[in-house]
Amino acid sequence: MNPRYLPLTATVAIFLIAYAVCIAQYPNMLSTRVIGNLLTDNAFLGIAAVGMTFVILSGGIDLSIGAVIAFTGVFLAVLLQSTAIHPLVAFALALIITTAFGAIMGAIIHHLEMPPFIVTLAGMFLARGMAFVLSIDSIPIKHPFYTTLKSFYYVLPGGGRLTLIGGLMLVVFLVGILIAHRTRFGADVYALGGGTATARLMGVPIGRTTILIYALSGFLAGLSGIVFSLYTSAGYSLATVGVELDAIAAVVIGGTLLTGGSGFVAGTLIGILIQGLIQTYITFDGSLSSWWTKILIGLLLFAFILLQKALILLSDRKRRHA
Amino acid sequence: MTGTLKAYAVRLFPQVAALAIILFMVSLAFPGFFKLSFQNDRLYGSLIDILNRGAPVALLAIGMTVVIATKGIDLSVGAVMAICGAVAAASITAGHSLAFTLAVTISTGILCGLWNGVLVAVLDIQPIIATLVLMVAGRGIAQLITEGAILTFNHPGLIFIGSGSLFGLPMPVIIWLGFGLIVALLVRRTALGMLIEAVGVNRRASRLSGVSTGVLLIAAYMLSGLCAALAGIIAAADIRGADANNAGLWLELDAILAVVVGGTSLLGGRFSIAASLLGAMIIQSINTGILLSGFPPEFNLIIKAAIIVLILVIQSPRAQSAFIWLSRARATEPTKGQEAK
């Protein structure tokens, strides 16, 4: 088997084994209701994680997404509360702002040649700060359009509900997979992750690709913010603190190499589902505390980093022998 | 000797100037800002308050400076603070002596640093990712120790560390000033500092020239863990309890910011602990200043972001080459470009 697929295979295997263990203990977990909830509850995280996958594939990192999600939520809540504009227009405005925000961060990273870590850290402070300035209260969203959107769902056999936001996450993953593997931009992202110097020699437009990557991440963080506001029906500036860490963890558990250049968008979906599964298990169990989620995710993260290290060592040795 | 002093003055000038400007601006908005009074055997006043409140970030910045100088980063310090606070509270409420509690807590911090250091130096994992593991899992571990509750304690000795005073200064101030001095002397009066910079500039070259890079890297992360332990003790002693959720939350970012404001490059190499401590005080002055001047605290983060962007622009290789181009009359230094990955 191509060693490229090994991390992804390991992720899928871990998910299936973990799910089997869960079912063995709680047979009720084998229902479309649980699966539907798994998709709905993690929709915002999944959408943001697709953007993070592209950023990490290119060898960068985006710490701003949690703050951008919160900003989008507050922005929508304030806009819908104090003006009469239609939510769809507000959605469009929010997406334009967050996409431009991402593009500016990408431009700073490229033109000022600064590490993405510190640039997106500044972006995180800025987005969180803007959310605070808009409002420090949790503002409910009571627009009838939200109720309409929430009433859309597809009933799965077995009574589970595939909600609009759960479905949207799956669509975003599908589009993400297509962009990553079937477009020139996707190929450029992988090339950039393989090394800036080689990518430049290959004729990849470095600046344009970098800006597009962070713009995409900003756009998806904005979309994730819209989904989050649908999920909670409120905007709160202190919401989704630390979501960037969950997203990074999902990307790594999904088998994407943190040095960039290798990985799959589909793996991130499994990474999200593993995290959701741990949470669901803890809810089913009832006696375990929720902090076990963090510890287990930390351990999984560590295991996958080790696996990646071993793979790199193996392929290096193979190259030396060849 | 005067040459060294002059070099220090030139190095620290931007930070001192920035701090002076910020303090001056705050004093315009809040007239009684510089007033100090001596009551109950200690000094009181806004300036002392800044020194006192800035203690955790200042302590973290000491360790972070050394780690960043090795071209690394330590994201786990906030979580390590939470773990150490929890350990201290759990040990003291279990009836152990103060000396034992401090020893256990500090060992815990050093152990956390050892874990990070081994991941970075032995397993050769990128520092951001290696320390991310502990950042994610750390708060869970802290919750495990406190069993989800906020562990409160009433031990006068431990509380003294957070709110007592010595020589007229609050205890946290004494701790960070003293610890900063010790570390600065240790790295600058020996070859240690130079070796750390060598590792940060080029790890491979320094290993080939006989520097034991592995030991140095692990030691740097252990120092960072030790600093986080001290900061964790202060934070816990200050509120007389260990809050696993909120102790040290996002302080790793403030500590990194303090180091960056202090002019140490994230790309590793030359560092200055004094400048990082000034950076920590600049951040605390902004925080305190915003509160005192009656600005809504909501603006705090935006101002911080603006300052980071400003410093980024000044530090960026492009801007530096522009500066050098502008000041060509002087003897120009070669631009330190971003190293190829």
Describe the structure.
Chain A: It is a multi-pass membrane protein. Chain A: It is found in: Cell membrane. Chain A: Keywords: Cell membrane, Membrane, Plasmid, Transmembrane, Transmembrane helix. The complex is a heterodimer of chains A (322) and B (341). Chain A has 322 residues and is mainly alpha-helical. Chain A has 14 helices and four strands. Chain A has a two-stranded antiparallel sheet. In chain A, β2 and β3 form a beta hairpin. In chain A, α4 (65-82) packs parallel to α6 (116-134). The radius of gyration of chain A is 20 Å and the shape is globular. Chain B has a single domain, classed as ABC transporter involved in vitamin B12 uptake, BtuC. Helices cover 70% and strands 4% of the residues of chain B. Chain B contains 15 helices and six strands. Chain B has a two-stranded antiparallel ribbon. A two-stranded antiparallel ribbon of chain B has the order 3-6. Chain B has a two-stranded antiparallel sheet with strand order 4-5. In chain B, a hairpin with a 2-residue loop joins β1 and β2 (42-44). The longest helix of chain B has 28 residues, at 2-29. The chains are: A mainly alpha (322), B mainly alpha (341). At the A-B interface, α6, α12 and α14 of A face α6, α12, α14 and α15 of B.
